[in-house]
Amino acid sequence: MNRPLLNPTATQPVGAKPRPHVRGRTFDAATEAIFRQRRIERALPTIRFGCIGASIIFAAFFLRDRYLAPDRESITLTIRLVVCGFFLLLVPVTQIAGFHRLIPYFVPFASAFASACVSLICTLLPSGFDIGIGGPLLVIMAAPAVSPTAMSAIVMCLLGVAIPNLAMLATGQPWLTVFSTNHYLVMGGALSMGIAILLERDARRAFSLEVELETAATTDPLTGVFNRRRFLDLAEAEVARARRYGHALSVIMFDLDHFKQINDRHGHHGGDQVLRVFPSRIDKHLRRNDTLGRLGGEEFAIVLPETDRGAAVAAAERVRAAIAAATIPVGSTAVALTLSAGCAELAPDDPDFDALLRRADAALYRAKRAGRNRVELG
User: Fold this and answer.
1) For 17-102, where are the alpha helices, taking DSSP H only?
2) Cα–Cα distance for residue pair 185/188, rounded to 1 Å
3) Residues 358/243, Cβ–Cβ less than 8 Å
4) Does residue 85 sit in helix, strand or coil?
5) 26-58 pLDDT per residue, tens
6) What is the pLDDT of residues 257-291, one digit of tens each?
7) Neighbour-count burial for 257-287, b at 16+ CB within 10 Å, e otherwise
8) pTM beyond 0.85
9) Which helix H or strand E contains 303, and what residues bound it?
10) How far apart, in whole angstroms, are the C-alpha atoms of residue 82 and residue 277?
11) Which CATH class is domain 228-377?
């Protein structure tokens, strides 16, 4: 069933997807996936800035070697210029639609490319190492800081150290070259990993607050399902999708029968307990793409995408029969419960979801007048 991102108060319905939750900065699997996806999407401006910064650094050291080190091998200057152009070219590439999906692969690739170029420069320099190699090393160690996760940053830092060292060992560079290069690599890597860890910690803290605010704005605090406003927004989106692709769409409205008597007999706490448990009792009879919301009081509604009126009536009957056959514990007693339901299928002349909901509401009213504990089609 389509559910809110976070539901801190309601009981997890049987058969539902694991409900995301946040405890401090520790997320469950579902929330972790959402956190990483949002962080990847928001990393684009930082990555663009990093590409521009890398280009500037390589250009600065290219100019330094070109004019202050005239004996520099021309091939190393060419490599620096190529890398500068590579990072500059990546800036417009990051603006391509859907590029954020490539970020987990793009950042390691860019870092590995810079590492390979630095390794090549190290093997071509007459002395193996000089201050001119510091700029490219800074780029290698800065890249992990914009990685979407601290773990990927650590892996990238390790690769950034390993690739140049393997190149230097393979070409027999003197120990002074290896030591000088690793001085930059290790110090820069430690700094980059520290920055990445701090950035992820702050991002998790901000995401926790974001989830709490989003939940408060979209979730009914008692039942944990979507509140009326969020449910109607999602329903309108489903209507637009159904019309775009020519699919059927239906809605079911539920109303708990004689709910006032439950409140009178067991108090409002007992009524709240019934409302709190109710979604978990109907959840296993719904699909993952069905959307359940509380419209107010004891009224609930379900949007069923790609469902015609016959299938909607069948689904409502399953829910009605399941509720009628079970009881809900309230304190030391068990409350028997029934519900009435009204179903309606989206029609071509329905101007919006509100029109569809009114027809389902009219069918629900007929079910109430006909004796309750029944399903009517609108």
Assistant:
1) 29-42, 44-68, 74-93
2) 5
3) no
4) helix
5) 677 778 888 877 877 777 777 777 778 777 877
6) 999 999 898 898 999 999 999 998 888 888 889 99
7) bebeebbeebeeebbebbbbbbbbbbbebbe
8) no
9) strand 299-305
10) 64
11) alpha beta
